[in-house]
Amino acid sequence: MSQIINIRKKFLEQPLGTILTEEEEFVEGEEAPRTPFHLSKTKLIATVGPKSCSVEVLKQLLQAGIQAVRFDFTWCTLEVQGFFDRTYENLLQACNETKKMCAIMVDLTGRELYLKGKHAVGEDGWPRRVESPVTVESGQIIYLSCDKADQDKKDTFLVNYDDFYEMAKVGDTIHLGRYLSTGAEASAVYVDVLEITGKKIKCKCKNPAVLDGLVTVFHCERSKSGQENVQNLLPVMTEDDKEALKRWSTREVDFVLIPYPKCKEDVQEVRDYLDFLGMHETLCISKIETRAALNGFEEILDVSYGVVISRSSLGMDMPIEKSVKIQKELIKRCNFVGKPCIITRVVDTMTNSPRPTRAEATDVANAVLDGTDAILLGAETTRGKFPVESVNTVKDICRQAEMVYNNDYHFKSIMKALGIDGHTPDIGEPMSEAEAMASSTVRAADKTNAAMILCFTESGTFARQVAKYRPNMPILAITVPTLKVKGCSWTLLGRRAARQNLIIRGVFPKLADPKTGLQEGWILQDAIKFSIAQGMLRKDDFVVVCHRLRGDLVISIVSVNDALGVTMQSGSELGQRHASTASMTSLVTHDTDDQYGSLPSSFEHGCAVRAQQSDGKSRSPRHNGKGLKPLSEEPRAEEKATASSGDDPVKTKIKRGFFSS
């Protein structure tokens, strides 16, 4: 209660004007304020389309903060691939000119239902309806048919699923709307099923609408009490999807989005096909769009790299009043297992307006506070009039929400769920060694008020584990690219691992200069100089560095001043010159005020934690529910008993003197 009172008092004492100018404040006489780091920890993904396919617009999107680009195959026509081929080349050029990395996502058609309207590919390669927009009025009778013979009949729309008539029943509600519509615009209509005759469904419109573009069909929930709605029997991948993936198999595709998965077997089917094409490093992300996906969420998440909460489709397949609760629960599950969660449909009004509604801004902020990793923009960047403004607006909202995000509560929630406080774990397995080091890294950064966490990583896994605990500071993940030579051909490894971390909240991957090789000292200096230039660091800041030293995973607390002042010897290990003279002492004291702490209260700047078994194998610090277990140089009584039984005791030591003058 006292903490709440203090926070409230501090807030009331703060002039409201400072909230608007907080990034410009600095004390006269000090050095000039750092250039504000303009990116949000929450990542932004743009869907490319006619309004965002040029090199110039793509450069603006990258500079605004886009971390990934989505190529959407929902039009389900191979003719669109020509448009995507040109856009892909434009994206590579934009990345080269801006010197920025960008992950590539491919979204399949899958089980998407849509009306088979006549369309043609325009001069820019994008498909458009040949027919004029269809206007329907409230109370008007229309027909949905599965028979191709009815295609040209008046007030009749042909559905791409031949057995759609078997899904519908009299009294059902069906949604017809332009693809990437919210369901509230003039381009969407809800119809009630009145009669089913053969393969023809007679419907009555509930509202007026103008149907244009690619019109999708969604069978809305039949009842509020049913746990699973009726689903179509279409395959998880269409033949066009497979042909498109073959076309893209020679490119570095980072993610494939799987629409409408029902179970883990759907994800595995896509995974097997990607492996068949040789796309072994491409990761699968599942889109949660139906009740069936909710019922199988745990197993779908288990076999997926992450998930997309497709809020438009999911919102129509469940009672609308439960949408907020379900969103929070899905994000929470993803956060606890350390897998990225992406949400969609946030600022739909910016498709035609330069400013979102207040409700949309609040929706974005709430998603950030819930813990989402990334936000996927659809119509805003595909056909919207303000693609760059949409990105900047969402980014600014995310940054403001991140300022009030309760990182400490999130950290403690995960530690409690893992059973670190002495309780039975709520989810998953007990904390692994890597997890222990990741949580220790975050706690070290928190206790030392570090400005940044720096991870040296090859696959990006450890950086993702650190990000799982949502530290208050950015995580710079440094990947050193390596050459893999096979005969006369060679491959540069590391780029894909770096790009795949672009959608992880708080992680900012960067490729190290290959000329530095494995000389981590030089890489550290380059990383700190880069961070200063980007506004992530400034003079007198401290950085928590995670790296390997002689085979052991080490957490170092590094001063920016000392790190830049140290001249590393060519070929030397990180801090080797200082580590050689460092004294070794044991961890004895603890911070008793923090039962979730992973570091002792005596932890000082310029220190590194290393856990090592007596057989020389590295191991993470052990938790006893109150942080690191205190171990002295001499084994304690219980450790002597353990040693006598044949198990090796763990000696946790602390090195002092890293980068100290």
From TrEMBL:
InterPro entries in the cross-refs: Pyr_Knase, Pyrv/PenolPyrv_kinase-like_dom, Pyrv_kinase-like_dom_sf, Pyrv_Knase-like_insert_dom_sf, Pyrv_Knase_brl, Pyrv_Knase_C, Pyrv_Knase_C_sf, Pyrv_Knase_insert_dom_sf
Kinase listed as a keyword: yes
Transmembrane segments: none
Pathway(s) the chain acts in: Carbohydrate degradation; glycolysis; pyruvate from D-glyceraldehyde 3-phosphate: step 5/5
SUPFAM superfamilies referenced in this protein's UniProt entry, alphabetically: Phosphoenolpyruvate/pyruvate domain, PK beta-barrel domain-like, PK C-terminal domain-like
Reaction(s) this enzyme catalyzes, per UniProt: pyruvate + ATP = phosphoenolpyruvate + ADP + H(+)
Superkingdom of origin: Eukaryota
EC numbers: 2.7.1.40
Short name of any one Pfam family annotated for the protein: PK_C
All residue ranges annotated as the Pyruvate kinase barrel domain in the record: 40-391
Gene Ontology MF annotations: ATP binding; kinase activity; magnesium ion binding; potassium ion binding; pyruvate kinase activity
Class of this enzyme: transferase
Compositionally biased tracts (Basic and acidic residues): 631-641
Domain Pyruvate kinase C-terminal: 435-548
Chain spans, region Disordered: 608-661
Basic residues bias (residue ranges): 652-661
Cofactor (UniProt): K(+)
Record key words, sorted: ATP-binding, Glycolysis, Kinase, Magnesium, Metal-binding, Nucleotide-binding, Pyruvate, Transferase
Protein family per UniProt: Belongs to the pyruvate kinase family.
Name of the protein described by the UniProt record: Pyruvate kinase
Organism whose genome encodes this protein: Picocystis salinarum
